[in-house]
Amino acid sequence: MFIGIDHGTTALRFASDTAEFRIPREKATEFTTTDLERICPVEEIEGIAVCYSMGDAITDITDIRKVKNRGIITREGAGKHTGGGTRVYDEIAASGIPAVVIPGIHRGSPTDPRFKAYSHQTSPEKLGIAYEVMQTLGETFIVSDAGSNTVSLLITDGTITGAFDACVFAPGTTHGALDVDAIRRIDRREETANEAFLHAGVRHTIPEDLQEATLALWTAMEIASLRLLAPDAPVAIAGSQAPGIAAEVSRLIKTPVVVYDDWVAARGCARIARDVFVGGVTSVLGLGIDR
Q: Which domain of life does the protein's organism represent (predicted)?
């Protein structure tokens, strides 16, 4: 059995190809490996693929025993910090179960260099989404993950070309890019930059009756911009907001949109674990494997 772990904004999701469960991030501070028995007996687990935070200190899919500082440069910066993801990572690392850590995409990653205008493109769990989507949409596609944040990726010929992180373009429900008002609040020391990021989503900036339409518009714009590089690429949307915005996104970009559920990242990570440990793959989405 192979398990993928999605380190999401509100919860950690655990999935195999037959079962799944989630733990809210605050509750994940109590995680032990015996929790994995909700999927299968621990002794039957052949491999795990773990996501942690931004994954910005590694560029390859890497054996967890080789990874320093959980694969990140620092815990400081954009995002919500509860300790649940740290607990899960450390328990897996100490368990002796074979495990790999999935990197984020950043300036050190093998993407189109033009995307490196920004330091960070996407966190690791989005690669799980992309790997799962590739099984049905083929090797060239665009996928947008719309939830607490919105992140979109372009995969070309089975390789990640580039992505837009939540700090850069489309807002999600909670997170978004920092606008002039946010910069002023930061300069006045009313908020830290991270607090401003956590208050830049549509739930904080847009009247309730326009939030879904706003999210759909910005997600569509993000997808449309990636289609400059792949005009005929099929499009998928994942994440908690996908069912609500898919029809409007499809109307705006004039292209059918395939919708995936909240489990696609964890399932994709489980597929990565399977392919790394027994599938004999030498790369995943163009990323190297360091075992």
A: Archaea
Q: What pLDDT is stored for residue 232 in this prediction?
A: 97
If the chain, 291 residues long, is cut into consecutive pieces of 10 residues, what is the mean pLDDT of each piece?
Answer: 92 95 93 96 96 95 97 72 87 97 97 96 97 98 97 98 95 96 97 95 97 98 98 97 98 98 96 97 97 85
Question: Residues 32, 37, 42, 45: is their CA dihedral positive or negative?
Answer: negative
CA 224 to chain centre: 20
pLDDT, residue 83, reads: 83
Q: For residue 4, what is the enclosing H or E element?
A: strand 2-7
Cα–Cα distance measured from residue 219 to residue 152, given in angstroms and rounded to the nearest whole number: 8
Picking from 150, 270, 163, the residue whose alpha carbon sits closest to that of residue 225 is 163
Domain residues of the chain, as ranges? 2-290
Whole-number Å distance between alpha carbons of 181 and 14: 38
User: What is residue 31's predicted lDDT score, i.e. its pLDDT?
Assistant: 96
- What are the structure tokens assigned to 10, written together? 């509100």
- pTM, whole model, 2 decimals? 0.95
- Pick from 278, 256, 57: which is nearest to 142 by CA? 256
Top CATH class of 2-290 equals alpha beta
3-state secondary structure of 112: coil
Provide CB contacts within 8 A for 44, sequence distance 6+: 1
Q: What is the DSSP string of 36-85?
A: GGGTS-GGG--EEEE--TT-TT--SEEEGGG-SGGG-S-S-SSS---SHH
pLDDT at 78: 59
